[in-house]
From TrEMBL:
Keywords: Acyltransferase, Lipoyl, Repeat, Transferase. Residues 256-293 form the Peripheral subunit-binding (PSBD) domain. This is Acetyltransferase component of pyruvate dehydrogenase complex. Residues 202-214 have a biased composition (Acidic residues). Belongs to the 2-oxoacid dehydrogenase family. InterPro entries: 2-oxoA_DH_lipoyl-BS, 2-oxoacid_DH_actylTfrase, 2-oxoacid_DH_E2_comp, AcTrfase_Pyrv_DH_cplx, Biotin_lipoyl, CAT-like_dom_sf, E3-bd_dom_sf, PSBD. Its cofactor is (R)-lipoate. The gene is aceF. The pyruvate dehydrogenase complex catalyzes the overall conversion of pyruvate to acetyl-CoA and CO(2). It contains multiple copies of three enzymatic components: pyruvate dehydrogenase (E1), dihydrolipoamide acetyltransferase (E2) and lipoamide dehydrogenase (E3). Its EC number is 2.3.1.12. Residues 86-113, 185-195, 216-233 have a biased composition (Basic and acidic residues). GO terms for molecular function: dihydrolipoyllysine-residue acetyltransferase activity; lipoic acid binding.
């Protein structure tokens, strides 16, 4: 077996074409004429067939590469029984079809019928299928125009598909589409009547030029606004998306779509692999692309109430009233915003939670001893200021927790300040005011500020600036109860400390069990930014600091 090059054959006049799909991989066995890859010019997509039977050893191009005639796209070992042929001699079908498309355009120019005069500088024409270079009975898979559309010469009228190539039949004229004479599925051959058009006379001094309000207005006057309206019409007629109607891409799945649809999808940034085709043989048509984009926009605007745009199927609600009496009420804006933030964080951040118990027996003794001083100052000293101070120290010691990830720019944003958010439970929902520069403040100051911000949160008095800029969050449920929980990181922060209720526990001191007040800590972190060892270090530092609060002074 000898290795031979797989080359791009004659492309029928097209200079450079883009590789849009690679259908085989190294190691695949192929038969002669099996498609190797699909290339696309601005008018047609063509499958490049294998020059013979054999085994693919290498593909040397990737999707998006531009290739031209003679370029090597891969290597293959021809099988002994009449393997690869000389591709320079052979004319692959793809070539014929690409050629046919190019010629078809030439011919359509040549074969423009003599104008039939109509009143006011326009004429009626019946557009026919140009020569398809030997192809006939090619089925229509998409009609790209609608009656009344104003189009330019070369705009695609219909898309036809043979078993090897998809071709668009371009309009030979600029003008207005009249009656469409074919339907999807019709098989077309040269000379078949496609549609009627009202063609504007070039430079004709028609009545229409001076009277744009008449039925056939001047080309310049009408074509612009109409061409703007065209996509809008398509969007409006697109089927209404029903929740999460789009599938995640299936690796290796083949996308069936014509060049115009591929171009549209590229322009709109839509991933064709995610779109379900509603055309014949599940082919993706323009309406499917519009409907997909519309559904994605809708989900984004609604804050992804049903699905997230990441291909996660939505939750279908049953009719609860069948199980008993129910009452529906609107979510508050805050509840809706919180729900979205939680979902966004939970879906975007790979969460891990690290647990630790801190011995706060001595800390609590000290805290309680401050009661009289607190009353004098009018400030209540709770465990929270100690937690704030300990977290600020741990953040300074382990600065990998004081970052945000900018995945788009592939950068880590390191913060030189230490601002900590505190989750506050209010009758209206969860709010997270932020205490700035925690590392520079004393315990009393932190106690006063956290109490003031918590009260403002409950009174709905927080200003936006008082809820922004946190590097880290503490969510304390200690006053309520619980032994441990897994808080959700308040992204773009990379960690959050959950605090549960302190409880007396027997702790082994090496000789005997001692009753100690243990505070359960739950540190959830973004595992993209922080590794497990650092998380264990962080909770260990916290536990040491809270176990001996004198070290907070160091
Ligand atoms: N273990 C045992 N007792 C605790 C404790 C703990 N971990 N934390 C606080 N306490 C005690 C306090 O000492 C106080 O007791 P005394 O009145 O006897 O002194 C009592 O519980 C109430 O404290 P507090 O809640 O008023 O004050 P705080 O500073 O500890 O907390 C705040 C302030 C704003 C964090 C809290 O009021 C709050 O809203 N917590 C809920 C946060 C929340 O909802 N998180 C969930 C977010 S995710 O859904």
């Amino acid at each position: 077996m000898s290795e031979q090059e797989i080359k791009v054959p004659d492309l029928g006049g097209a200079d450079e074409v883009e590789v849009i799909e690679i259908t085989v991989s190294a190691g695949d066995s192929v038969e002669a004429e099996d498609p190797i890859l699909t290339v696309e010019s601005d008018k047609a997509s063509v499958e490049l067939p294998s020059p013979g039977a054999g085994k693919i050893t290498k593909i040397t191009v990737k999707v998006g590469d531009k290739v031209k005639e003679g370029d090597v796209v891969g290597m293959m070992e021809a099988s002994a029984d009449g393997g690869g042929s000389d591709d320079s001699k052979k004319e692959p079908e793809g070539k014929a079809e690409e050629k046919s498309e190019a010629k078809e355009q030439e011919k359509s120019e040549e074969s423009k019928p003599a104008p039939k005069k109509a009143s006011g500088g326009s004429r009626k024409e019946t557009v026919k299928v140009p020569a398809l270079d030997g192809f006939d009975n090619v089925p229509v898979i998409e009609i790209n125009v609608a009656e009344g559309d104003t189009i330019e010469a070369d705009d695609p009228l219909v898309t036809v598909e043979s078993d090897k190539a998809t071709m668009e039949i371009p309009s030979p004229y600029s003008g207005k589409v009249g009656k469409i004479l074919v339907s999807e599925g019709d098989k077309l051959s040269e000379g078949h009547e496609l549609l009627e058009m009202t063609v504007q006379e070039e430079g004709g001094e028609s009545e229409d030029d001076s009277e744009p309000a008449s039925e056939e207005p001047a080309k310049e006057a009408k074509s612009e606004p109409e061409s703007e309206e065209k996509p809008k019409q398509q969007v409006e007629s697109a089927p209404e998306p029903q929740g999460a109607t789009y599938e995640p891409p299936t690796p290796g799945a083949k996308v069936h779509a014509g060049p115009a649809v591929r171009k549209l999808a590229r322009e709109l940034g839509a991933d064709l692999a995610r779109i379900k085709g509603s055309g014949p043989k599940s082919r993706i048509i323009k309406d499917d692309v519009h409907a997909y984009v519309k559904s994605q926009l809708k989900q984004a605007q609604q804050g992804s109430g049903v699905a997230t745009g990441s291909g996660i199927p939505g939750v279908k609600l049953p009719d609860f009233s069948q199980f008993g009496e129910v009452k529906r009420e609107a979510m508050s804006r805050m509840m809706f915003a919180t729900a979205n933030n939680m979902q966004r964080s939970w879906l975007n951040v790979p969460h891990v939670t690290q647990f630790e118990d801190a011995d706060i027996t001595d800390m609590e003794d000290f805290r309680k001893a401050q009661k009289a001083a607190g009353e004098k100052k009018g400030v209540k000293m709770t465990p929270l200021p100690f937690l704030l101070k300990a977290c600020a120290t741990a953040l300074a010691e382990l600065p990998q927790f004081n970052v945000s990830l900018d995945m788009e720019r592939k950068e880590v944003v390191r913060k030189k300040y230490i601002h900590i958010g505190i989750a506050v439970d209010t009758p209206n929902g969860l709010m997270v005011p932020v205490i700035k520069d925690v590392d520079k403040k004393g315990l009393w100051e932190l106690a006063a500020e956290s109490a003031e911000l918590a009260q403002k949160a409950r009174d709905k008095q927080l200003k936006p600036a008082e809820m922004q800029g946190a590097c880290f969050t503490i969510t304390s449920l200690g006053g309520i109860g619980g032994t441990a929980f897994t808080p959700i990181v308040n992204t773009p922060e990379v960690a959050i400390l959950g605090v549960s209720k302190a409880a007396m526990k027997p702790v082994w001191d090496g000789k005997e069990f001692q009753p100690r007040l243990m505070l359960p800590l739950s540190l959830s972190y973004d595992h993209r930014a922080v590794n497990g060892a650092d998380a264990a270090r962080f909770t260990t530092v916290l536990s040491q600091l809270l176990g001996d609060i004198r070290s907070l002074l160091l």
